[in-house]
Amino acid sequence: MNLTHLVSLADLSAGQITALLDRAQDLRPQALSGNTQRGALQGKSVCTLFFEPSTRTRSSFQLAAMRLGADVLGFDASHSSGSKGETAVDTMRNLEAMGVDAFVVRTSVDGQLSELIDAANASTRFINAGDGRSNHPTQGLLDMLTIRQHKGHDFSRFKIAMAGDIRHSRVARSDLHALKALGCGEIRVCGPQALLPDDATLDGCTRVADFDEAIADVDVVMMLRLQRERMQEGLVTSLEHYHSQYGLDTRRLALAKPDALVMHPGPMNRGVEITDAVADGPQSAIMAQVSNGVAVRMAVLKTIFGA
To answer: Which of 111, 183, 212, 245 is surrounded by the most beta carbons within 10 Å?
Structure first.
């Protein structure tokens, strides 16, 4: 497939998403160990341009690029000239002038990635590693890959519940783009009214107010992080109340199918949106999501470079 940048899964067809998932699955043996792909991006330079903190996404992109033999430059905004007033565009241009071929960008500003792409050379590649509340496409891909590995490729058979702060979640938006594109049978969404989006994000989804009802007989439960600043904003009464209404514990999980998959993009607020017994339990695929991140990001890097 021909892909210059990866900005949003909404830009991709079902066939393109499937092709990336197939490629990631093929790369899994080399993702966590192995040297057979080291020559794929030899001579290419990849910069992780992160203006927000990150553990899983940044580390897995760096590992993915190194597994493919690229030179990797890590950018830390807290120690950059941005603190002196330099704009994100000027930062990118300076790094580009040093010979960086691709940027993996995380930013808190919606739309900033498009601004960087417009200001860059036509040959420079960009991958969205999370922008504002808008998109996190590689997280969406690794979540779909995890579901496929555990449940099969026919998404039309699945009932999937997504619970939590959907309004402010870029992960939720990318997951929903992918699930709809792949023809998911039923998508149920649940959360406090103040944390549900009022735009077209939930088109095609079933809104369920009661979490017990939302989780009943589903194949996959996708939990989202409660961003604690929502409590300061008055959108959540208290962490205890939120957990009582929307927290996933063993009692609630028993309402889903016996082999239901539990997912969470991290970082987790244990005891708020999910309990230890569930997060670390036999139905949890959370660590599988993390390990799949390296393979997915290898697949995306190879694809944007045409390797």
So the answer is: 245
DSSP β-bridge partners for residue 46: 72, 102
Cα–Cα distance for residue pair 284/113, rounded to 1 Å: 33
The 10 Å Cβ neighbour count of residue 154 is 11
Cα–Cα distance, 147 to 179 (Å, whole number): 10
- Whether omega for the bond prior to residue 267 falls within 30 degrees of 0, making it cis, is yes
Measured between alpha carbons, how far is 73 from 148 in angstroms, rounded to an integer?
32
Q: In angstroms, rounded to a whole number, what is the distance separating the alpha carbons of residues 286 and 277?
A: 13
- Bridge partners (DSSP) of residue 240 are none
Number of Cβ atoms within 10 Å of the Cβ of 232: 9
Nearest to residue 34, comparing CAs of 292, 301, 295?
295
For 9, 113, 230, the CA distances from 107, given in Å and listed in that order, are: 17, 8, 19
pTM as predicted: 0.95
What are the pLDDT digits (tens) for 189-221?
999 999 999 889 999 999 999 999 999 999 999
Q: What are phi and psi of 24, to 5 degrees?
A: -60, -40
At residue 261, the 3 state secondary structure works out as: strand
φ, ψ of residue 215 to 5 degrees: the values are: -90, -10
Cα→Cα distances 73→65, 122, 159, 207, Å: 10, 20, 41, 43
- C-beta of residue 119 within 8 angstroms of C-beta of residue 92: yes
> Is the Cβ–Cβ distance between 160 and 186 less than 8 Å?
yes
CB 219 within 8 A of CB 186: no
